[in-house]
Amino acid sequence: MRGLTEALRELAYRLLREGEVELFLGYSWGTLPLVVRPCFATRPEQVEAFIFNPLCLPNLVKYLLRFEGRRVAVVVKKCELPSFRQLLADRNLERKKIRLVVAPCGGLLDPAKLQKEFSGQPLEFIADRGKEYVVRVGEEEKVLAKQLYLYPRCFSCPQKDEDLEPEDIRLEFSTSLPSLEVDPYAGVSYLEERPAEERREFWDRVFKRCIRCYACREVCPACSCHECCFDPPLPGWQRTVDWMSKAHWLPEIYQYHLTRALHVAGRCGECGECERVCPVKIPLMLLVKKLAKEIQSLPGVEPGILASYSPDDPEPH
């Protein structure tokens, strides 16, 4: 898979050298083993840091909000295109200044599982064989069955192609995600079948872990409001009454998470970034999937597609 990284670097170098973009957003290795982080290049000589492999988990489209008005190229995977489309629908991006670089993805791997298996040793990805990846660990080659090591969100990947603009670029590389017959709402269905008291105890237990860092909000592409209802409208010395404090109080933790979940319902691309960045591992995708399941039950409505409206839209009855 080294060829994919080389192709990405060559593309980034050309776009920056020829002035077609001012900024290229991609991935590079982080400071911790098996951790990939966002990488920003504004000069051609910086592209040597770029990589692309099955550990490139972050969804980069939210970063586009920081570079409004600039000509930017951004690496995306197919599963992240709904998030980008939603930002366009919310009128937060100027499409003509953005070039999408769609990287082929045969499924992302779970760093936690790999850390446990290889004790943080660096991996070099050699090939994608459809149902498995071939990696080099030190001097030894190993085969990783995707079914065992896939990142959770990949089990429900829609694997749908989206229409692109002529200026967008698809990187060509032989890769594929095996067909996985997994019910995307299995976790939700299991909870729905539990008694009400057991469900309450479950959510009390996981929400008590919340430290109100707002990482889920900051990373979520659907949370793109310029002013958030959870932020105080005035600086501390002018503050009077806030709608909600940041005290570690369970009712307010519920208020935060349920308000945010309902706010993005119907607009969520289910990229899973909220759950990925949570430092206390709250299963936030259960909330997301529950609302998506309810929306799915509405006739003629698909989750993540509630992105257009008109003054002539009929009121629900």
Automatic annotation (TrEMBL):
MF GO annotations: iron-sulfur cluster binding; metal ion binding
Transmembrane segments: none
PROSITE patterns: 4FE4S_FER_1 (PS00198), 4FE4S_FER_2 (PS51379)
Recorded superkingdom: Bacteria
4Fe-4S ferredoxin-type domain sequence ranges: 199-231, 259-288
Keywords per UniProt: Iron, Iron-sulfur, Metal-binding
The protein, known as: 4Fe-4S ferredoxin-type domain-containing protein
Organism: Ammonifex thiophilus
